[in-house]
Specification:
Two copies of one chain form a homodimer. Chain A has helices at 10-13, 18-21, 48-60, 72-81, 95-104, 122-129, 147-157, 179-186, 239-245, 256-267, 269-291, 315-326, 333-339, and strands spanning 35-36, 89-92, 112-117, 133-138, 161-165, 190-194, 215-220, 233-237, 296-298, 308-310, 328-329. By secondary structure, chain A is α/β, with parallel strands linked by helices. Chain A contains 13 helices and eleven strands. A seven-stranded mixed β-sheet of chain A has the order 2-8-7-6-5-3-4, with helices on both faces. Chain A has a two-stranded parallel ribbon with strand order 1-11. A two-stranded antiparallel sheet of chain A has the order 9-10. Chain A has two domains: 35-45 and 270-335, Aspartate Aminotransferase, domain 1 (Alpha-Beta Complex); 48-268, Type I PLP-dependent aspartate aminotransferase-like (Major domain) (Aspartate Aminotransferase, domain 2), CATH 3.40.640. Chain A is globular, with a radius of gyration of 21 Å. Chain A starts with 9 loop residues before the first helix and ends with a helix.
Chain lengths: 340, 340
């Protein structure tokens, strides 16, 4: 006999916050395809040396024991990598967990949160879950950041938080040199720089940490480090700010195998950096080839993906023909924008 | 040169919600010890067959690719295990992530949340992060649940949420037969039953799911399944409620290796169940031995740990002598209670 649920969930749903019920869940349904480009992942699996090191380490770990509360050695290596303080490094189950924790400790009922738009749709969804008010600031028609408008929006709404993805998903746009410093100088907000794609290009805000406590920089091993499947990310912030964000992060959030994988990826940093350079060269080649195709426009990208505008044919048609005729799965950003 | 942080973080800290700043972070600092009992873990490492299966699977996985958005096969196996609907199963990075998500979609500024006290301190911390108001309902002096008082507190405060850990950490008390049905009948709240330790004893609320949409049951593989180090838990709920909770859960929250480990643990369910029976037999032996020791009182437990009250000597002294003279690390629940 198949189980069935209670006939009505109305009374239960009435207990869910209305702002949550109004949201569409983050989702991604996509057909399998031999050339999978739709999630901005690395095209390379983790190097064999990384997999071997992780499997060797995993075998010897006590799986019945919680991971260390603070993985000190890893935190110190990440700190050294960015010349920052170990007490200002937080590790997470992907950098998404640290976006979530940062929003959780700053956003309550009605809190304005400024982000460029379009951008990674998770920011908007989480702001809504915490009862905040998303203040989107449109990119220019050429998908460049409008720094003046961001400053104005943050000042006008007195937003305690501005979240910028640089390079930006899905446009590939880097936040320009000096723009983070401007946000810090001209607004009173906590500036969260999500640098998930920064290994592929564009400036980094990390050096500003030394002089600015109102800055949180998020990094991930899901892109250039080929570890999207193992989930590892981290935040860099002033130690006092990191200690507050940590309160909304779950204890034992990064499992033992992923901790080993992060170590192994750091050990293989040179090899991974060479692959990152190869991705950048491919991107440049792709941009040149795309720019020679009539009927579409490719926008310059600092990330590991390229946004195109379909002029001659509808985007949905291009999307479907690419996957059906060529086995190339891309992301339909026109569709994503509806959610963003 | 050692990096240094900006001289003052005051302006940044002013942007953190005051209710968050008032909280003490969840933490656990403990000395290493050969007999580690302080985290209620399984004393057995994951079976070799589990480790072997996971390592075999891990090697073949594309680590550069995000895990599946919904791991359908695993969700269906978990549903079958509990005779529940696959659409009413949510997987998480430990069951803590699903506690967090459930609170996030129900708790806003001032929302009352009823829990017994003392209990797992994470509930109180997360309620505070989301701006809610924790309503603790004391256990009886013998550490039994006071179901009348829970019902009264939920009704008096019109709390949309009651969270009960059964068996309860740190007391080992099972929520009595019929008590969940009473909470459902006599309050209008969503009842969250955290059954992390239920494999070791006490009733389960799972059969009530069929008739009650206001019920969420949380389960974990961190205890009886020996996988605390890999982080896996899940929630069972009405599909409509599960869909709302999913909005606060991060996409790709369970990594590829942990998904493989959950499958392997389900494959080894018989072996793990035999180990669970062995833990129960050890608990009964321990309780008998403890009850023969003058100067302390052992409380009956349905979990994989036993709470004792130190009568003759201070608890802190017993804690320190156990670890220093015998290498036995326990949890000082008197200290935890300060945080709870």
């Amino acid at each position: 006999m198949k189980p069935t649920a209670a006939p009505s969930a109305d009374a239960a749903l009435a207990l869910i916050k209305p702002e949550v019920r109004a949201q569409i869940a983050y989702t991604l349904e996509a057909p399998p395809a031999p050339r999978k480009l739709n999630q901005n992942e690395s095209p390379f699996d983790a190097p064999e040396v990384v997999k071997e090191a992780v499997i060797r380490a995993a075998w010897g770990e006590p799986w019945n024991r919680y991971p260390p509360f603070t993985p000190r050695e890893l935190v110190e290596r990440l700190a050294a990598r960015h010349r920052w303080l170990a007490s200002g490094v937080l590790v997470g189950n992907g950098s998404n967990e640290l976006i979530q924790a940062t929003l959780a400790v700053t956003v309550g009922a009605g809190t304005p949160v400024v982000t460029p738009a379009p951008t990674f749709s998770l920011y908007r969804l989480l702001v809504a879950v915490y009862g905040g008010r998303h203040v989107p600031v449109s990119l220019t028609p050429d998908f460049q950041f409008d720094v003046d408008a961001l400053v104005r929006a943050a000042r006008d709404t007195r937003a305690p938080l501005v979240v910028v993805n640089s390079p930006n998903n899905p446009t590939g746009t880097p936040f320009p040199d000096g723009a983070v410093a401007r946000l810090l100088a001209e607004t009173g907000a906590l500036i969260v720089m999500d640098e998930a794609y920064q290994d592929f290009g564009g400036p980094t805000a990390v050096p500003l940490l030394t002089d600015h406590a109102r800055l949180v920089v998020l990094r991930t091993f899901s892109k250039a480090m080929s570890l999207a499947g193992l989930r590892f990310g981290y935040a860099l912030a002033h130690p006092a700010v990191a200690a507050e964000i940590a309160k909304a992060r779950l204890p034992y959030n990064v499992n033992r195998v992923t901790l080993a994988a992060a170590h192994a990826a750091l050990d293989a940093a040179d090899l991974l950096a060479e692959r990152t350079r190869a991705v950048r060269r491919s991107r440049e080649l792709l941009e040149r080839r795309l720019s020679g195709i009539p009927g579409l426009r490719a926008f310059p990208s600092a990330a590991n993906f390229v946004l195109i505008r379909c002029v001659a044919r509808p985007a949905a048609e291009v999307f479907h023909r690419l996957v059906e005729e060529y086995g190339i799965l891309v992301r339909d950003a026109a569709l994503s924008a509806l959610l963003a």
